[in-house]
């Protein structure tokens, strides 16, 4: 199962009008009531968090595994899916700031050995365009794209690559030979594969693997604890993913090992990204500080582009939207029975996020529920003027 696209539900619900609550309830009570309510409406388990300057409040509800008795614990790790994309973009921003690559570096410039086999329209696609889903590339968030690539693998004569770096280049060469699904460099077309190509460009310009770059250039400077869980891993002693219709959830079983090694090439878009709520809160807090104008390890070019987003516009792993007219940036994620959702005030005054070990077959009811839950939290705990 692959990552789903950014949810249109998010933009629709977060921009809903009315219903504001101007009282000052306890953040703890708001979050716990909201977490309990989300579980009562079908989630297996959930963690909700709200941040304002210098403070974070968190609440948990539900179970690690339906049918079990162990509740969601403090420090439990969750798969976060596509909310990883902003992290990959922030990593790119730091490398741009170091002069290792530019936002305007093209696919043909960064990957000259693949240029001859690319569709000509891809050659001028830039790093920034890939990170803003304007590369015109296949999405790889649906079974059709996966089946098409699997068919190619099955028809390929001779041995297939056996290392992750070789698989990344093999996948990239095949992907770039496919017809664009939107006008490269112009039309918006959500693509997990585009983030894989962006990361490959970073690898080519630095000589280091994506995971190594992530750890050295992002996780350490920001104090994050992030790992990657392969799709064939059997989760134990932690929340497991659940998927299905409301009231009929089933645990997500490990993927076939042969398929899992190919899913790893999509890590930069969120395949398998794993972290705890506390670590993720650190990531969010850096953004709050930066958006308030404080000095942070986040690159100036990354922040400049986020601030410049117009309502409804997507860029660098974020979409600009609003909560009852208040400007925010947001993103959601879904992967192997887990969902995440983050909303940050555009002025850096507050933020809320949710992790759950629950996903819907169609990606809809769980994200709709998380959207409404965070909207209720944001309305009950508005930022200071």
From TrEMBL:
Gene3D superfamilies: DD-peptidase/beta-lactamase superfamily (3.40.710.10)
Pfam families: Beta-lactamase
Family matches, as InterPro entries: Beta-lactam-related, Beta-lactam/transpept-like, Diverse_Enzym_Activities
Keyword Hydrolase included in the entry's annotation: yes
Signal peptide, first to last residue: 1-23
Residue span, Beta-lactamase-related domain: 40-360
Alphabetized UniProt keyword annotations: Hydrolase, Signal
SUPFAM superfamilies to which the protein is assigned, alphabetical: beta-lactamase/transpeptidase-like (SSF56601)
GO molecular function: hydrolase activity
Keyword Hydrolase: yes
PROSITE patterns: PROKAR_LIPOPROTEIN (PS51257)
PANTHER family according to UniProt: BETA-LACTAMASE-RELATED (PTHR43283)
Full protein name: Serine hydrolase
């Amino acid at each position: 199962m692959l990552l789903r696209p950014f949810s249109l539900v998010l933009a629709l619900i977060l921009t809903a009008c009315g219903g504001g609550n101007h009282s000052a309830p306890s953040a703890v009570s708001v979050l716990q009531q909201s977490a309990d309510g989300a579980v009562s409406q079908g989630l297996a388990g959930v963690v909700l968090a709200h941040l304002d300057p210098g403070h974070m409040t968190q609440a948990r509800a539900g179970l690690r595994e339906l049918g079990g008795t162990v509740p969601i614990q403090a420090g439990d790790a969750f798969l976060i899916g596509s909310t990883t994309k902003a992290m990959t973009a922030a990593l790119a921003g730091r490398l741009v700031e170091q002069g290792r690559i530019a936002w305007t570096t093209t696919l043909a410039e960064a990957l000259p050995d693949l240029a001859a086999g690319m569709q000509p329209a891809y050659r001028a696609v830039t790093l920034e365009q890939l990170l803003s889903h304007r590369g015109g590339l296949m999405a790889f968030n649906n079974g059709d794209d996966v089946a098409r690539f699997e068919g190619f693998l099955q028809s390929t004569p001779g041995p297939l690559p056996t290392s992750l770096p070789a698989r990344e280049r093999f996948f990239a060469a095949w992907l770039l030979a496919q017809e664009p699904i939107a006008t490269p460099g112009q039309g918006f077309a959500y693509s997990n594969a585009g983030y894989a190509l962006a990361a490959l460009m970073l690898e080519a310009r630095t000589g280091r693997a994506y995971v190594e770059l992530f750890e050295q250039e992002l996780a350490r400077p920001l104090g994050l604890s992030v790992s990657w869980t392969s799709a064939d891993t059997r989760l134990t002693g932690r929340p497991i993913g659940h998927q299905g219709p409301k009231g009929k959830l089933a645990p997500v079983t490990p993927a076939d090992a042969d398929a899992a090694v190919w899913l790893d090439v999509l890590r930069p878009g969120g395949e398998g990204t794993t972290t705890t709520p506390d670590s993720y809160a650190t990531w969010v807090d850096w953004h709050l500080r930066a958006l308030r104008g404080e000095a942070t390890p986040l690159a100036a070019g990354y922040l400049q582009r986020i601030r410049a987003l117009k309502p409804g516009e997507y860029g660098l792993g974020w979409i600009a939207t609003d909560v009852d007219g208040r400007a925010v940036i947001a993103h959601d994620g879904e992967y192997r029975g887990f969902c995440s959702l983050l909303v940050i005030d555009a002025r850096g005054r507050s933020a809320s996020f949710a992790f759950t070990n629950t996903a819907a077959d169609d990606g809809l009811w769980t994200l709709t529920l998380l959207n409404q839950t965070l909207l209720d939290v944001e309305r009950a705990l508005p930022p200071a003027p």
